[in-house]
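Q: Hi! First time doing this. I have a protein sequence and I read that you can turn it into a structure. Is that right? Here it is:
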Amino acid sequence: MPVDHQRICKAVREILLAIGEDPDREGLRDTPERVARMYAEVFSGLHENPAFHLRKTFVQKHDEMVLVKDIPFASFCEHHLLPFIGLAHVAYLPNGRIVGLSKLARVVEVVSRRPQVQERMTEQIADLIMEHLRPRGVAVILEADHTCMSLRGVRKPGARTITSSMRGGFLEHAATRAELMALVFGRGS
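A: Yes, that's right. Below is the predicted 3D structure, encoded as structure tokens:
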């Protein structure tokens, strides 16, 4: 089901009234409409299948790690509907087939554009790649700043959350995992 634009507009207007604002004042008059358009954009991943981007693969004899690092993403914490913003690092060990590098970034984009928790997002990306590419291993590392921790509650700006999900060779072989960590975080980290 696509985003119900009018329903969001009504809800945002109600929120503005509930916090004691005047939704008819000049600065807020168009806010419900803007928020509805923004929600359609930031939650577009709810209406897209990320596996679509992993359908086209190429035969390629390459048995070493493929890593796309520093993929920017923005998602929304499902607990407070506040953004968390960060970088994804996605690696796999091909098993005779590769995928276009941009497709890994597209998977991150689709999965991030849903109400999420970082832990599940990390697992979903790893599981999708493992299932559809059938590589010898997958590693996904996400680093993010959560505004639900910096703007409210504990109010700790700068606290960064790192999650990882390892499959196959990355989970089973310490040397492969160490090589990944050195490539992502540098040898001194």
